[in-house]
Amino acid sequence: MTMTVKKTIEAKSLDELSGILGTYDEHLTHISREFDLLAYVEGMKIRLEGKEEDVKCGEAVILGLLQTVRTGERIDEAR
């Protein structure tokens, strides 16, 4: 039986959150499909649920995007 793991990542500002999510949450949707995750936003928090390895991978991608956004860069399809 596979255990479901939950992880929360919190953005510091609305600008950070919108930079990570993309237009119509396209970046979050892509991450959730790529890693087979349930991913959703509650306030300033991104919630991830799924298999442990998938959640770890999704978290790593989101934290990487967060670092990029915090340097002032925009996220596009190449990142």
Structural account:
It is a single chain. The protein has 79 residues and is an alpha+beta fold. The chain is 46% helix and 24% strand. A 3-stranded antiparallel β-sheet has the order 1-3-2, covered by helices on one side. Helix 1 crosses helix 3. The radius of gyration is 12 Å and the shape is globular. The termini are far apart. The model has no long low-confidence stretch (mean pLDDT 92).
Short key terms for the protein model shown above:
alpha+beta, 3-stranded antiparallel sheet
- How do the strands line up in the largest sheet? 1-3-2
User: Main sheet, how many strands, which sense, barrel?
Assistant: 3 strands, antiparallel
Uncertain spans:
none
Distance between the termini: 34 Å
Question: By helix and strand content, what is the structural category?
Answer: alpha+beta
| Count of distinct strands | 3
**Secondary-structure element string:** EHHEEH
Average pLDDT metric = 92
Shape: globular
Number of helices: 3
Q: What's the gyration radius in Å?
A: 12 Å
Helix content: 40-55%
